[in-house]
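Thread: Protein quiver, structure

OP (GT): Posting the sequence first so everyone is looking at the same thing. Length is 166 residues per the record. Can we get the structure tokens written out before standup tomorrow? I want them in the notebook alongside the other entries.
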Amino acid sequence: MDTGGSHRGSTVFLATAVFLSLITVAQSIDCFKCVSMNGKFPACDDPFHNNHSLQMLESPCMGGRKGRDGLFPATSCIKIAGVFDDTGERITVRGCGLDSGTATTDTEIIRMSHCGRFYYNDRYVHGCLQSCNDADACNGTPPLSPKTSLVGGLVLPLYLLTLLRS
């Protein structure tokens, strides 16, 4: 009874499945979505911890576009942290957005991170608006370093290749 062929077949299947799981299709981005006013939702505030945040992760994150009905796959995550000018209340907002295709950055919050005063929900806020699109859930904790991703992306396939040859 020869089991070498079935062992090799399952190893090839496993290697293919792992390799395909490493490939990502950039159709949409996953982002944390939450709002905290005056610290009433600490899980949303800074410092942000991923330990209980899966309920806040929207995958894929969907956002609206100016002049269009419905929701569309987001292209960036956003984080707003600031203080309302009129009341002094602190606010933290994590969400997502997409480029609506207009020509000016003042109407496209995802194109430019900035700090200062801006308008949010018909009120002035003094704070920072940050956008990112380099990784899923980038509006939470800092992403893995490029070195970590590179090591995982190279070592795992090489290890699987060695398994296939044995």
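GT: Both are above now. Quick notes for whoever picks this up: The first helix runs from residue 4 to 22. The chain has two helices and nine strands.
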